[in-house]
Amino acid sequence: MAKTRHDGPGPAGGKHTPEPHPRQNHLLAALSPAVQSRLFPHLELAELPLRALMYESGHIMRHVYFPTDAIISMQYLMENGASTAISVVGNEGLLGVTLYMGGESTPSRSLVQSAGHAYRLPRARVKEEFDRHGELLLLMLRYTQALITQVAQTAVCNRHHTIDQQLCRWLLLSMDRLSDNRLTMTQEFISNMLGVRRSGVTQAASKLEQLRVISYQRGLINVLDRPRLEALSCECYRVVKKETDLLLHYLPQRQVIADAGDIPTVTLPRD
């Protein structure tokens, strides 16, 4: 069984919720039972509160994290305190590629963008399995290639596209890593992610609201019209998604629920 570790207040505000399972991370779920049997006993469950700092620039990395329902933003922090997100990591992969690629630290920092959970694996266990040159190595390398594409396309997007397009791209990447169409996020935090002024994010979000693409209230963003959101985004999102789908063949087809009331439910008998 995976161990349970509490790093702070849970994302559900103290309410009891079912414990996540490692297979909620699609990369872990894609491993064979033999590899899972070697890794799962060493996994530790960590709660990831909103804005929790996972890795700091230049610090030694001791674990690889496999998110189940959290989103982690990798950011570059400038000397003057300004920052911008260079990629997002969710249940499609892992945080900590530097560790198994030969480095012990990274110049970027990692911040929890959407609260949830992740399973972490100690550095020694990661390298031990990686050095077997088996399934984990192949999946990790393919994921690293997809991540490189995302980082490169983000740099292009930040340089050549409008704040409106950048916001659409960022919302779509975030929604791909969540189970519904809702994202808890303030405009101030979004501006830090994109590395732009808050006023620019406010204007861009207002335009999307007027077009009834999203609704925004008290830090809760609800995507109402995903096809329109994709149409308003630049080509950067499509490039990243195409490469991700090509490399990460284990990802499930994502079904977007427009209305929570459409989700079928059953009533279980009481004991």
Describe the structure.
The protein is an alpha+beta fold and 271 residues long. It contains ten helices and eleven strands. The chain has helices at 26-29, 33-39, 97-100, 123-130, 135-160, 163-175, 187-194, 198-210, 226-232, 235-247; strands at residues 3-5, 44-48, 53-55, 63-67, 71-77, 83-89, 109-114, 116-122, 182-184, 214-217, 220-223. Strands 1-2-8-4 form a four-stranded mixed β-sheet. It has a four-stranded antiparallel β-sheet with strand order 3-7-5-6. Helix 6 (163-175) packs across helix 9. The longest helix is centred in the middle third of the chain and has 26 residues, at 135-160. It is globular and about 50 Å long. The two termini are 27 Å apart.
Explain the layout of strands and helices.
Elements lengths: L2 E3 L20 H4 L3 H7 L4 E5 L4 E3 L7 E5 L3 E7 L5 E7 L7 H4 L8 E6 L1 E7 H8 L4 H26 L2 H13 L6 E3 L2 H8 L3 H13 L3 E4 L2 E4 L2 H7 L2 H13 L24
Parallel strand pairs: 1-2
Antiparallel strand pairs: 2-8, 3-7, 4-8, 5-6, 5-7, 9-11, 10-11
* Main sheet characteristics: 4 strands, mixed
Helical fraction equals 25-40%
The proportion of residues in beta strands is 15-25%
Strand order of the largest sheet: 1-2-8-4
Average the pLDDT over all residues and give the rounded result: 84
Anisotropy-based shape: globular
The number of helical runs is 10
Q: Tell me how many strands there are.
A: 11
* H-E string: EHHEEEEEHEEHHHEHHEEHH
- Which segments are poorly predicted (pLDDT under 50) over 5 or more consecutive residues? 1-14, 254-271
Summing up helix and strand content along with how strands pair, one would put the structural category as alpha+beta
